[in-house]
Amino acid sequence: MITTEPLSEALTDVSRQGDTAGVFTHIYEPDCQLAVWRRPLSAALTGYVDGLERHYHAINLRELLPADAVTDTLCARLPDLPGRDDFVADVQQLAEMFACLFELRRVGLRLASLQTAMCPRFHVDKVPCRLVTTYAGPGTHWLDREQRNQLLDSGGREPEQWQRLVAGEVALLKGDGWEDNDGQGLWHRSPPVPTGYRRLFLSLDFAE
């Protein structure tokens, strides 16, 4: 269960950030376009991710499934390295939180190891809301309202400054597909990945 928590963190004009998953409930506030759970990754999670990055480069899983089916699906698809149970349990927890928060019967799961940016330019998703987290490598870039306005006023020229998530943080990104949110969704982009490195990225979408 996700419960509302008092905000004890930096609050911007479009985001709410906190140290527990309770921060996710703020995504229902009309002016909140981004809710970030700031959390560290455990040693077991980091160890498993490091093993994946060293030995299994071709990870690109896409599934539409009930949240409670994530564990069986990932155990069947991911290599059995030390820490796998911890990693799978983490993804399972995030899927269940996402499904509970939005009353979803199924979620759209993507887990990918990336060498390049999927979406290198700032944009807004035409979806209600998306959960994203990076287990290794650089995190998603996003714009506050002032930076968004600068981008729009410049005719789409990439801004010189932006905000960024870090590995381990979990974020809900509200899109233009959210009811009564057209034109207000969060501007964001995939980060560049340094040569020789990979980014392990998870996203969850509505699948209804």
UniProtKB/TrEMBL annotation:
This is Succinylglutamate desuccinylase. InterPro entries: DUF1826. The lineage of its organism: Bacteria, Pseudomonadati, Pseudomonadota, Gammaproteobacteria, Aeromonadales. It comes from the Bacteria. Pfam families: DUF1826 (PF08856). It comes from Oceanisphaera arctica.
